Amino acid sequence: MSSNLPGKSTSSGKRHSRDVFHSYLVNGADFLGPLDMPVLKPTLSWPRKLVAFSDAMNKAWDDFDCTVHFFEDDFRIEPFWSNPRKYLPKLSKFDSVIGPDYSVCYDFPIPLKEWNAYRNQALSYWLQRSGVRVIPNVRCDPDKPDAYLAGIPKHSTIAIGARACIKRRRDRDSFVKSVDAAVLYLEPNNVVWYGSEAYGVADHVRSLGVDFRSYLSKGRGNLREHSNG
Q: Would you say residue 29 lies in a domain?
């Protein structure tokens, strides 16, 4: 475990005076891998239906028999990163929450990908520590699975978001490689798949015999009829 994570004790025994990196999110965590990712607990949970974070936090939303997801544009997630405590009371009412999904696109600079991967996992850890049932969300650099997936539990339910990842051929190829690497590394019991299955992007996961359920990206009752498991 590294001694120089933001907010953790340095060699002088002091802490940063301003917690600009939100180190409180990982207080008490164990860390794994070259990126010092906080370790998450496994869960075995099938969402009955999904709702986007931005919709769920609307004052008018009062259906809590569903799972909140963050498969949205990054700017819609930013308010949660900026002030997670503000949203915890309502998030705690839902059946479960899929971990945040800051982008780690293949063409991003490496430091940005690593920072976003860390933020996804730090927020997931904090939610778990706060008593929320969290389904780990998986984003992976296929060339560095030991870095991006460290701390994600094996033999657990995991979530994979296919939103906005498959329209362009290069994006699609990168996405499929990352999904295959993640499933091989984590050996999940269950896969919650959000979004499109076009171009056969989920075929390999399905072929492995893993319990698999696919959810449409719109609507309150969004479990696809052809899901297995």
A: no
| 107-135 residue pLDDT tens | 889 999 999 999 999 999 999 999 999 99
- Amino acid letter, 48: R
Residue 9 lies in a domain: no
Q: What is the mean pLDDT of the chain?
A: 87
Structure token pair of residue 120: 């996804």
pLDDT at 188 (0 to 100): 96
Does residue 7 sit within a domain? Answer: no
At 37-60, the pLDDT tens digits run 999 999 998 999 999 999 999 999
Q: What SS3 string covers the chain?
A: CCCCCCCCCCCCCCCCCCCCCCHHHHCCCCEECCCCEECCCCCCCCCCCEEEHHHHCCCCCCCCCCEEECCCCHHHHHHHHHCHHHHHHHHCCCCEEECCCCCCCCCCCHHHHHHHHHHHHHHHHHHHHCCCCEECECCCCCCCHHHHCCCCCCCCEEEEECCCCCCCHHHHHHHHHHHHHHHHHHCCCEEEEECCCHHHCCHHHHHCCCEEEEECCCCCCCECCCCEC
pTM for the full model? 0.87
Q: What's the domain range around 58? A: 35-215
pLDDT surpasses 50 at 7: no
The domain total for the chain is 1
Residue 184 lies in a domain: yes
